[in-house]
């Protein structure tokens, strides 16, 4: 029973990796051409899939930002309670000065 579950998990991982390679745009693939990644994942299921996830899959935006420590960081999102203009407008409305 454990062997069957392990086999199904391996098959699921292989299919996931294969589908991920196929659906990733060519320009986003890292370290090797997409066709080579497809062959690696198809012919060496477990190891190829692990290599794909570690070395071939596109980086997320957060991972790209971590890899470029010297680059400018985008401004942090500002909530309405941190925006002075919003607070002035809210104060004006609460005092009854709204002309709406």
TrEMBL record:
<keyword id="KW-0812">Transmembrane</keyword>
<keyword id="KW-1133">Transmembrane helix</keyword>
<feature type="transmembrane region" description="Helical">
    <location>
        <begin position="35"/>
        <end position="54"/>
    </location>
</feature>
<dbReference type="InterPro" id="IPR027379">
    <property type="entry name" value="CLS_N"/>
</dbReference>
<feature type="domain" description="Cardiolipin synthase N-terminal">
    <location>
        <begin position="12"/>
        <end position="57"/>
    </location>
</feature>
<keyword id="KW-0472">Membrane</keyword>
<dbReference type="Pfam" id="PF13396">
    <property type="entry name" value="PLDc_N"/>
</dbReference>
<feature type="compositionally biased region" description="Basic and acidic residues">
    <location>
        <begin position="79"/>
        <end position="100"/>
    </location>
</feature>
<keyword id="KW-1003">Cell membrane</keyword>
<feature type="region of interest" description="Disordered">
    <location>
        <begin position="63"/>
        <end position="100"/>
    </location>
</feature>
<protein>
    <submittedName>
        <fullName>PLD nuclease N-terminal domain-containing protein</fullName>
    </submittedName>
</protein>
């Amino acid at each position: 029973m454990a062997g069957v579950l392990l086999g199904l998990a391996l098959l699921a991982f292989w299919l996931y990796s294969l589908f991920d390679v196929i659906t990733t745009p060519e320009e986003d693939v890292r370290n090797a051409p997409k066709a080579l990644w497809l062959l690696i994942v198809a012919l060496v299921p477990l190891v190829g899939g692990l290599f794909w996830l570690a070395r071939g899959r596109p980086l997320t935006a957060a991972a790209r930002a971590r890899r470029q420590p010297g680059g400018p960081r985008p401004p942090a999102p500002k909530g309405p309670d941190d925006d002075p203009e919003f607070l002035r407008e809210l104060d004006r409305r609460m005092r009854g000065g709204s002309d709406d």
